[in-house]
Amino acid sequence: MVNLTETAVKQVHELRRAQNLGDNVFLRMGVKGGGCSGLSYLLEFDSEVGPHDKEFDVEGVKVVVDKKSYLYLNGTTLDYVQQGLTGGFTFVNPQAKSSCGCGTSFSA
């Protein structure tokens, strides 16, 4: 299971409205090799679901995670944090053994 905080849900809805994205577009969460800690998080809008993707509905936000990424993201919560004039999505991942200072990569 993956989760989104209330703040993240609001931000995803706002981004979808601002970009005029249709109902067939969903939020894809993923992991890829790279980054300063070995693995990097991916977060993007997508419209194609693969045969092995896992699908979740969180407060009206459709979230899709590919099978390989789900091994690393199961139990993860996506949050949106506003700091001063900037804000960004953060991953709260109980499976991450360590993460880098930038918050976009981790090791498992």
Write a structural description.
The chain is of the alpha+beta class and 108 residues long. The chain has one domain (3-95): HesB-like domain (Hypothetical Protein Aq_1857, Chain: A). It contains 2 helices and 9 strands. The chain has helices at 6-18, 67-73; strands at residues 3-4, 26-33, 39-46, 54-58, 61-65, 77-83, 86-92, 98-99, 105-107. The strands form 2 sheets. It has a 6-stranded mixed β-sheet. The model has no long low-confidence stretch (mean pLDDT 87).
Question: TL;DR of this structure?
Answer:
The protein is 19% helix and 44% strand. With 108 residues, the protein is α+β, with helices and mostly antiparallel strands.
What layout of secondary structure does this protein have?
Layout: E1 3-4, H1 6-18, E2 26-33, E3 39-46, E4 54-58, E5 61-65, H2 67-73, E6 77-83, E7 86-92, E8 98-99, E9 105-107
Parallel strand pairs: 1-6, 2-5
Antiparallel strand pairs: 2-3, 3-9, 4-5, 6-7, 8-9
Question: Main sheet: which strands, in order across?
Answer: 4-5-2-3-9-8
Helical content (DSSP H or I, runs of 4+): 10-25%
What fraction of the residues are assigned to beta strands by DSSP? 35-45%
Q: Between the first and last Cα atoms, what is the distance in angstroms?
A: 17 Å
Low-confidence stretches: none
Total beta-strand segments: 9
Count of the domains: 1
* CATH classification class: Mainly Beta
**What is the chain-wise order of helices and strands?**
EHEEEEHEEEE
The CATH topology label is Hypothetical Protein Aq_1857, Chain: A
